[in-house]
Design brief:
about 160 residues; alpha+beta; four-stranded antiparallel β-sheet; two-stranded antiparallel ribbon; elongated; disordered C terminus
């Protein structure tokens, strides 16, 4: 009959612990960029959803007020509230020679994202473009601050022709 030794303890060797730590570190190194890319894609998608909601609000605003909104704040009149972590770097009404030439230029980014999303509504028909925040008007806005506000103002002054 064999007796258990009370003087030595069973456990992992230093080499085994080092190997396990190394494997976990390598897995983290491989997964970190994948997680970062997925987070960026999610932020861009969420910004696009917010811009799409703003486009619907612009449409509603124009139909209700027979004028174009000049600020994001003006869209609150038709029930649009931007997400708290979205910053509108640009929200500008540009009058054309006729109703088919007039549009609102919108550009926004989500806090923590490296990508800004922009559209010209209704000119682009809902199409959106993505660009590095540093290469857009969002870089000039300081890439931060309170989300959602594109400036102070009330009702739009541009008349729908």
């Amino acid at each position: 009959m064999r007796r258990l030794s009370t003087g030595s303890s069973q456990g992992f060797t230093l080499v085994e612990l080092t190997l396990v730590t190394l494997v976990i570190g390598l897995l983290a190194l491989i997964l970190a960029p994948l997680i970062s890319r997925a987070r960026e894609k999610a932020a861009v998608s969420a910004t696009k959803v917010d811009l799409r909601n703003a486009m619907w609000a612009v449409e509603t605003y124009v139909n209700t007020n027979t004028s174009w909104p000049t600020t994001v704040d003006a869209l609150e009149d038709v029930g649009y509230t931007p997400s708290s972590d979205v910053t509108y770097c640009q929200f500008q009404y540009l009058a054309g020679s006729g109703p088919s030439d007039s549009y609102v230029q919108m550009q926004a980014w989500r806090a923590g994202s490296k990508t800004a999303v922009s559209t010209r509504y209704p000119l682009d028909g809902g199409a959106m473009t993505e660009a590095d925040v540093g290469k857009t008007s969002c870089a000039a806005s300081g890439k931060g601050g309170k989300g959602g506000k594109g400036g102070k103002g009330g009702k739009g002054k541009g008349k729908k022709s």
